[in-house]
Amino acid sequence: MRRLALTAVLFVLVPAAAHAASLANVDVTAAGHSCSTLKGLAGATTFRRLYATTNLCVGSWTLRARAARVAATSVCKDKSLSGVLLDACIVEQTASILAPKVRNYGRAARACATELKSLGSRQFTIRYARGHPARAFKACVSRKL
Question: Which end of the chain is more exposed for a tag (fewer CB within 10 A), N or C?
């Protein structure tokens, strides 16, 4: 009897865990696409000023991608879609929610790169990070968003 109960619990939990893992993969994939686009928009040097590695970018954008997916899921379910059509709608809506954010982030990063070049490293750091060079570029981007 105990074994049967344990089997029943596992039967319910394993698909739920697998579904949660697949949703996390969707979020990471969307974040990866966002980071690739951002790197293309901002340029490799500017991108490295924001994120030391691509993995750090993906980690940062995964939260944004999850929020976008949740919003997209709501929109797509309101359309009474299901199955493959629901999944396709969610992917498309998630991308359309993230795209303007990535463009704005890329635009802000390029503006900060231009400003860094014109002011010089020392003045740029004083303006945006009160003498903390490691934080200056991200602070500039945050202010311009």
Answer: N
Q: Is the pTM of this model over 0.85?
A: no
Average pLDDT (23-47) is 92
Please compute Rg for the chain using Cα positions. Answer: 21
Instruction: Convert 21-59 to b/e letters by CB count within 10 Å (16 or more is b).
Output: eeeeebbbebbbbbbebbbebbeeebbebbbeeeeebbe
Return the SS3 of 132.
Answer: coil
Q: Give residue-wise pLDDT tens across range 89-132.
A: 999 999 999 999 999 999 999 999 999 999 999 999 999 998 78
| Average pLDDT taken over every residue of the chain | 86
Q: What is the DSSP string of 81-104?
A: --HHHHHHHHHHHHHHHHHHHHHH
Token code pair at residue 121: 């490293």
Q: What is the DSSP letter of 117?
A: H
